[in-house]
Amino acid sequence: MGCTCPTATSSGVLQLTAYDFAHRAVFPVTLNWSNGTVQELQSVDDNTVYPVLGELSGFGSGRYEVTVTDAEGCSVRAETSADCAVHEPISDFNARFYIKSSPNSPIDSCATVNAADFKNITELQFSLRWHYSWMELKEIKNLSSAMGISMANFSVPSTGLINFQWISPSPQGFSYPVDFPLFKVCFKNGSWDTPLLDFAASGGAPKVVHATKGEIGFIGKNGRVYFDYGSNDEVVEKFNLAPPDCAYDGYARVQLESYANQNINPYKNLQFENGYSYYPKVTADTLLFAPPGTFHFRTSGTNNKMSRFFVHIPPYEPSSSECVWPGDADNNGVVNHFDLLNLGLGFGTTGIARTAPDSLWAGADCADWPEQTPVHQLNYKNIDADGNGLVELADTAVIMQHWGRAVHPYNRDIFATPGLPDVTDDQCSLQLSADTLHAGKVVEIPIVFSSSGNPVSDLHGLAFSVSYDPAVVASALRFEPVNSWLGDPGTDLVGIQQDFRGQRRLDVALTRTDGIGVSGTGQIGKLILTFNTPPPDSILHTLVFISHSFALTSGEQRIVWKNSRSELWVRADPSVGTSGGSSPENHIDLSPNPASGFIRLESPVTPIRRVEISTVAGAIVQVIEPDALPHRMEIPLVHLPFSTYLARIFTENGVVLKKFVIAR
Predict the structure, then answer these.
(1) pLDDT at 584
(2) Amino acid 378: pLDDT
(3) Counting beta carbons within 10 angstroms of the beta carbon of residue 233, is it exposed (0 to 12), middle (13 to 18) or buried (19 or more)?
(4) Alpha-helix residue ranges (DSSP H) falling in 73-161
(5) Is the peptide bond preceding residue 594 cis, with omega within 30 degrees of 0?
(6) DSSP characters over 447-482
């Protein structure tokens, strides 16, 4: 399985292939993707050695998994990750170290240990290592007089190691404005052309202590000792280690920067090392989220050029005020529809507002609120998605805006639920209730909660995905909640949804807002869509799956329900022409535009069911669901600032998108 991003800012394409699958699997075969999409394959092209089993598009940065199961129950899992994001470089450089060598005699050679960006350093400790059969230590010389280094700062505990330890005599520490040499170490040739010389942690954990910041971590670029050979150019010209940062979830960051194009971590051939053996390759951007620990790694570019590094990130105390991300209401490092469930638990709660704008995907420090959820102790400051100090309906717009983002896109599933389930209930499921349907016009398919055992009790919210075939469904999919046992939309029930056509999936979440759990079975809403018209005298057959069902009780119990599979049969409607009916876009007018205090919608052909007004960035700012189904309506806008907006107008024949401007 592979996931690719055409450009650094575009969405990814996820493709799953298999070897000789037509003869190795028993059909039908089910694909269960980690995003909630479910597909069923009846066959594949048996003339293709590596057939494509599935392809989804429209992905952002993140980790993705798929489980493939055939009719006999044999299954296999595949996973991949993609980074479609651009990361800002670290502007404030930390202290760094590097080993520099130049050609010498065929017998003896020296390498210089250099330092860069030395600012108020009070303590320094590290080791050097080399393979003793490759070369023999001759002497240490050219000690930095400015730092007051002497031979007393060195020890040689064993062959192939040097320990170095230095403490500043001044409490303000030592600073130097430019790169400078610490000392030079010289060797005798041991019949190896260009032996490696590395930083290490033999004499204790490497340490760089700042006068005011404390221990800030050690990063050093390793080198070689050259005996009568010219120096190869290093792939990485600049490198840095930044201290823990709330915006990066508390972890220190390692960044490698190529001098030519200033790209951050552009090297895809990166391997971690243990001694001088190499682990499998990983993406270089993994280093942006490296936790505390010691790392040896190398990165390669073109023409076999290579840079090798040693990094020690010291342990650190987490901030007393945990970092909060806008829209991540369940504090699991990702934003998706599951975040609405916790928002419902905290609805109406007030607390401390954050200063960081919710429009930016960045972490912000915030003191804890007095309230937290009863079981999993999630602080309500996280549930306040927009950070204004109040858990309210407006928080749903921030979830919608940042939907699909992850703090750690390389090791986070962006479709993750709020946590592990407390109960897996195989007796309950959401199902479609439909007979043969008509194509070419809007159809409504009830979605019902069904239980073959005891009905669920104390239900407070639920989230689920609807998987469909875009080749059969002509329109965007939409879920419309109804006044039911679960709640009354607009009164005590709030919902969000997104249709990801490229991922063959609609995601939906619903939550009560009064804190009261309910019990019951039956319909909770309806799926509204239009099917493509089949050829004359034929019937379309398609599968629809409801999956990724996750429920939350008012007591914060997490429940997973089983998936459901529905077979739908679609035939042409005699009352609809082959053109598929009239287009509502030609019969809906929006005026005035530009608007001031209101807009007027006129739909003479089909009544208006719902209107959503959003910013051009996609944040919903107003929803209107009229009690009657009017052909004409006026919508007040006095509460909205002047800007450009989008109006999504839902009718029986589909959805119409209109752009308008508020100018006062």
Answers:
(1) 41
(2) 93
(3) exposed
(4) none
(5) yes
(6) EEEEESSSPP-SEEEEEEEEE--TTTB-S--EEEE-
> Which residue type sits at 458?
D
Query: In angstroms, how far is the first alpha carbon of the chain from the final one?
Result: 52
Q: How far apart are CA 225 and CA 188, in angstroms?
A: 10
Q: Beta-strand (E) ranges in 117-233? A: 118-129, 135-141, 154-155, 161-167, 174-176, 180-189, 196-200, 207-210, 214-215, 218-221, 223-224
Tokens for 31, please give them: 């694909």
Cα 286–chain centre separation: 13
Cα–Cα dist 293/536, whole Å: 67
Q: CA-to-CA distance for 42 and 188, rounded, in angstroms?
A: 69
Q: How far is Cα 449 from Cα 434, in angstroms, rounded to an integer? A: 14
What are the angstrom distances between the C-alpha of 460 and each of 212, 329, 424?
Answer: 49, 16, 17
Q: Per-residue pLDDT for 614 more than 80?
A: yes
> Quick check: helix, strand or coil at residue 286?
helix
Tell whether the model's pLDDT for residue 578 goes beyond 50.
no
Rounded Cα distance, 418 and 512, in Å: 17
Write the CA distances from 93 to 116, 287, 291, integer angstroms: 9, 16, 19
**CA-closest candidate to residue 460, choices 346, 382, 298:** 346
By CB neighbour count within 10 A (0-12 exposed, 13-18 middle, 19+ buried), where does 212 fall?
Answer: exposed
Specify the amino acid at residue 228. D
Residue 401: φ, ψ to 5° = -65, -40
Amino acid present at 172: Q
Integer Cα distance of 123 and 108 in angstroms: 32
Distance CA 17, CA 38 (A): 16
Q: With a cut of 80, say whether residue 320 has pLDDT above it.
A: no
Confidence category of residue 476, pLDDT binned at 50, 70, 90: confident
**Token pair belonging to 101:** 């060598």
Which of the two residues, 347 and 248, has the higher pLDDT score?
A: 347
DSSP per-residue string spanning 234-265: PS-SEEEEEPP-GGGTT--EEEEE-TTT--BS
* Cβ–Cβ < 8 Å for 240, 93: yes
Task: Give dist(CA 457, CA 451) in Å, integer.
Answer: 11
pLDDT at 178 over 80: yes
101 compared with 319, residue with greater pLDDT: 101
What is the spatial distance between Cα 342 and Cα 662, in angstroms, rounded to a whole number?
Answer: 34
Bridge-based pairing of strands 96-101 and 218-221 is: parallel
d(CA 87, CA 68): 34
| Token pair recorded at residue 535 | 């050829």
What's residue 9's pLDDT?
44
**Which among 270, 299, 396 is positioned nearest to 339, based on CA atoms?**
396
Q: Are strands 564-572 and 437-439 parallel, antiparallel or unpaired?
A: parallel
Q: Indicate the pLDDT class of residue 502, thresholds 50, 70 and 90.
A: very high
Give the C-alpha separation, 640 to 597, whole Å: 9
Instruction: Quick: pLDDT tens for 116-141.
Output: 999 999 999 999 999 888 899 999 99
Cα 199 to Cα 126, 224, 510: the distances in Å are 7, 11, 55
Tell me whether residue 637 is exposed, middle or buried, using C-beta atoms within 10 angstroms of its C-beta: 0 to 12, 13 to 18, 19 or more.
Answer: buried
